[in-house]
Amino acid sequence: MEALRTGASVKGPAVFILPELPYAYDALSPTMSDKTLHHHHDKHHAKYVDTTNTLLKDKPQFAASTLEDVIAQARETKDVKLFNNAAQAWNHGFFWECMAPGGSKPEGELAAAIDTAFGGLDGLKSALVTEGVGHFASGWAWLVSDGGQLKVTSTHDAETVADRDGVVPLLVVDVWEHAYYLDYQQDRETFLKGWFDSLAHWGFAATQFEAAKQGGQGGYRYPAPLQKAA
Ligand code: MN3
Asked: Topology of 108-213 in CATH?
């Protein structure tokens, strides 16, 4: 089954779309090539969305659930396959928003919070790169607000912070090999440094930081499931 794009109409339980990238496939080059983005978005992310939708066909209790609800309930009921695919769909949707072409710098209250927590942007870069490089095998390196405090952390495989109480992610970078292997082979450190300097979307991080102050309200949500056809 092809991952659904916006505008489709379907029958049955919650069906999630593959969101379009918020920039052109070649917009992040050379730090992230269009080849990597096509492969990563059109194949990897699409597969997680497709598998989530396939698994939900047999789970009518999830009808009209948000992806955030699916993740939380799959975790609670120890539905590992559904959790892994739903969380990966969410993590990738969030990850695309965390990048923008051209590079930027944090400003205002976010910049001040980074100074407080990390001694400045260089300190944050060092913490995030160290976390990502030191993370064994596949996973995600995050900048989060945890109870109002900025922290760097990482999660294994599909593990996500999407449903963690009191935690609002500001940025994430994918450290699965498929995120960088075509462009950097095994050199995760060069990928992470380039990502931080050239791709990190501080405007998006600022909106998440603002949401964190409102208990997460107004923060990123995965696109809502498509409405059931009448
Ligand atoms: Mn990935």
From this structure: minor pseudopilin epsh fold (3.55.40)
Ligand 1 centroid to 82 CA: how many Å?
A: 17
> How much distance in Å is there from the Cα of 59 to the middle of ligand 1?
26
Please give the average pLDDT of every successive group of 10 residues along the chain, which has 230 residues: 53 82 97 97 97 93 90 96 98 98 92 98 98 94 96 96 94 96 95 97 97 92 75
Distance from the alpha carbon of residue 99 to the mean position of ligand 1, in angstroms:
14
CA atoms of 216 and 114, how far apart (whole Å): 19
Residues with a beta carbon under 5 angstroms from ion ligand 1: 174, 176
Predicted TM-score (pTM) of the model is 0.93
- CA 12 / ligand 1 centre spacing (Å): 28
Encoded tokens for 161: 């912070």
Return all residues near 36 (Cβ < 8 A) that are at least 6 apart.
Answer: 179, 180, 182, 183
If you measure from the C-alpha of residue 112 to the centroid of ligand 1, how many angstroms do you get, rounded to a whole number? 31
